[in-house]
Specification:
About 30% of the residues lie in helices and about 25% in strands. With about 700 residues, the chain is α/β, with parallel strands linked by helices.
């Protein structure tokens, strides 16, 4: 599908708020303010109060008002609220944690009507009842003139936030239905029990013998168990898409996710890349962050994307709420626009009045009156509407650099380290190094690498990648031989996913042999002596080095020394040990970093790392003259458009506009002299160009 306009508006109705007495006034004012889209929740527990008895009177009235005021509606299906009648009829449908806690009928602040987290995904009767509810919704509204699209899942995850922190004892689901489904999944994955035994290190006689992992430390079984639930979430989404399409082949179908690392692969099991394969478009929450927007863009694979749930006026009952200013709102709208989003829905129009989310989250005042931030939002949307034609005709997003991500690696690191922080922060650090360096950044998942998609990038960064396999190393070699640049970090490929075993040599999975080197010693910051002569290479958790150009770099957590080919040494520790080495392979090169440079950067912001990355990759394709730390994007065509700027530094930064263009209005904490724009420290800005 393609867009012929950009939806702009709000999440509006999550029963039971706002009250029916407020609907007509609100929707009338929304339309008169220039907004065109609202999102409405269809909640299983609320709209099917008895089995097979549906009450859609609230949605019917809201859809009628949408037609009256020429608004379009996104219908969001909320199925993680188990109806009371289902809970009574099928008490065995509840999810169960490793520690035996039964999750039945909770009412957290974000599911005020109760029923969270919904039934187990592997309970067949509950699954069929979900399908029947989806069919009832789709049959009723497929032909409604107010319908814009279907959003069939609000932030997919296993427990709707109840048990989001990755703690072993809280993991779900351990019911008999899930255990049986897991064993069937293993049979498909391994083909025969001998193969599973080899990887897991077991001696099972059949798949019926397989036990659910209930603690960390054995690694291979835990990775499989959590990946099984990643596939479960993906399959559930596919089912919802297919069910809606039984009745509606006209309106697009999507879900909106919360991207990694906020939703992790251990307890949430939401995989944006797998989910992105289904549906007609993609969306996310927290998409105002550039990394979140680029994750969604990468998972979308060219599908349209929208910023589905913008959290501008966030807060809680006794902590007040954030009042967004112009720079905040520019960031919420125009940074995701620059990264591919073509739709914007704020959470929400009216402030919440029920529970401890009240009185926050609203664009209007509690009584429905206008607010300053709503007036600014109107102005910014009017700016976007003026340039809608140029934006929609803008060339596709550039492919310049990429950061590698792998859900299995995330699970492995959590199992080994007890936290997802190591991989999450390293991923963020690698992204920030490239983004602040001025590059267009994508994310490359394991399947993308296997499918040869690395070839579109000039450089790919592999941050804190401990789990890998020989086949992927071959893909890296093919990519580098054709001229690509690869950056790997300490302990790369330590464990071979295909065998479940730790590699004899590092970098692992055949990379050491490719580079002609062999691991000598591994220093861990948490055990700094390591029995290796008491050598200290840094202070605390940090390892420092200096490049051949004098840039001081800071890495964290690990430092590895090698014997064999040093390649070209690009950085050394203060005592002369190689810290970063470059190896020519065909037309390209592999940069081997002996520590976690990405982790050091996200924690310290060391400017030397930023200039070093710019040197080894080369100037960015767009705005190469922009100062380091000022990220620039142009969204438009030769007739005009929008220049989106993000100053990630602590100093004001200036960039010249493209030759032949001049600036019009400038929004955010920025100024212009007609041919250049200056942005204040840490701020986002957007300028009209004509």
């Amino acid at each position: 599908m393609t867009y012929d306009h950009i939806p702009m508006g709000f999440q509006y109705y999550r029963a039971p708020t706002p009250a029916p007495s407020e609907w007509e006034k609100d929707l009338s004012e929304l339309a008169s303010d220039g907004y065109d889209t609202v999102k409405l929740w269809l909640q299983w527990r609320w709209n099917e109060p008895e089995e097979g008895v549906y009450d859609f009177s609230d949605i019917d009235e809201l859809m009628r008002l949408c037609v009256k005021y020429k608004l379009k509606a996104v219908l969001n299906l909320i199925l993680d609220v188990t109806p009371v009648w289902l809970d009574r009829k099928y008490p065995d449908a509840a999810m169960i944690t490793v520690h035996g806690v039964v999750l039945r009928g909770y009412a957290p602040s974000y599911r005020q009507i109760g029923g969270a987290p919904g039934p187990c995904f592997h309970h067949e009767e509950a699954r069929q009842l979900r399908i029947e509810f989806i069919r009832a919704c789709a049959a009723r509204y497929a032909d409604h003139p107010a319908l814009l699209m279907w959003d069939v899942w609000n932030e997919p995850e296993l427990t709707v936030g109840l048990l989001r922190k990755p703690v072993v004892g809280d993991l779900v689901c351990c019911c008999e239905n899930s255990c049986a489904a897991f064993r069937r999944w293993l049979a498909r994955r391994y083909g025969n029990i001998s193969k599973l035994n080899q990887v897991w290190g077991r001696r099972y006689r059949s798949f019926e013998d397989v036990e659910i992992p209930r603690t960390v430390g054995t690694t291979a079984d835990m990775i499989d168990w959590r990946e099984f639930f990643c596939d479960t979430i993906t399959e559930e989404f596919r089912m919802r898409v297919d069910t809606v399409k039984e009745f509606d082949r006209v309106h697009p179908v999507m879900c909106h996710t919360v991207p990694m690392p906020i939703f992790n692969a251990v307890s949430c099991c939401s995989d944006d890349f797998a989910i992105g394969a289904y549906g007609d478009l993609v969306g996310n929450s927290v998409g105002s962050d550039p990394m979140a927007a680029d994750l969604l863009k990468s998972a979308a694979k060219g599908k349209p994307m929208i910023n589905s749930e913008i959290h501008a006026a966030y807060g809680m009952a006794l902590s007040g709420f954030h009042i967004p200013d112009e720079s905040d709102l520019v960031r919420h709208i125009f940074i995701p626009l620059a990264h591919g989003s073509r739709g914007f829905l704020f959470w929400q129009y009216r402030p919440e009045t029920l529970g401890n989310e009240a009185p926050a989250w609203g664009h209007s005042a509690l009584d429905g009156d206008d607010t300053e931030w709503n007036r600014v939002t109107r102005d910014l949307f009017a700016l976007l509407r003026r340039h809608e034609r140029e934006v929609l005709s803008c060339p596709p997003a550039r492919h310049e650099t990429a950061v590698y991500v792998d859900r299995a690696n995330e699970i492995y690191a959590w199992d080994a380290a007890g936290s997802t922080d190591l991989t999450a922060q390293s991923m963020s650090g690698a992204y920030q190094l490239l983004y602040r360096g001025g590059y267009a950044v994508d994310f490359l998942c394991a399947d993308d690498l296997d499918n040869g998609l690395a070839s579109r990038y000039k450089a790919v960064y592999f941050p804190a990648v401990f789990l890998f396999d020989n086949g992927k190393v071959k893909r890296i070699r093919e990519y580098v031989e054709q001229g690509g640049t690869v950056i790997i970090e300490s302990l790369f490929g330590s464990v071979d996913r295909s065998t479940g075993r730790h590699c004899f040599n590092l970098p692992g999975c055949g990379m050491a042999e490719l580079l002609g080197k062999k691991v000598d010693k591994v220093y861990s910051a948490s055990m700094i002596a390591n029995g290796y002569d008491g050598i200290v290479l840094g202070s605390g958790n940090r390892f420092e080095a200096v490049t051949d150009a004098g840039e001081r770099l800071i890495g964290e957590q690990f430092f590895v020394t090698y014997t064999g080919d040093e390649g070209q040494v690009l950085a050394r520790t203060d005592d002369g040990r190689p810290a970063i080495c470059s190896y020519n392979v065909g037309k390209g090169r592999i940069i081997d970093v002996s520590t976690l440079l990405s982790l050091g950067f996200i924690r310290t912001g060391a400017p030397g790392s930023l200039s070093f990355i710019r040197r080894i990759i080369g100037e960015p394709a767009r705005f190469p003259e922009a100062p380091l730390g000022l990220h620039c994007d142009y969204v438009g065509n030769a007739d005009g458009g929008l220049l989106v700027l993000h100053n990630t530094t602590g100093e004001e930064q200036t960039v010249s506009v493209p030759t032949g263009m001049r600036t019009g209005a400038v929004y955010g904490r920025a100024s212009s002299d007609g041919t250049s724009v200056t942005v204040q420290p840490g701020q986002a800005a957007v300028a009209e160009l004509y």
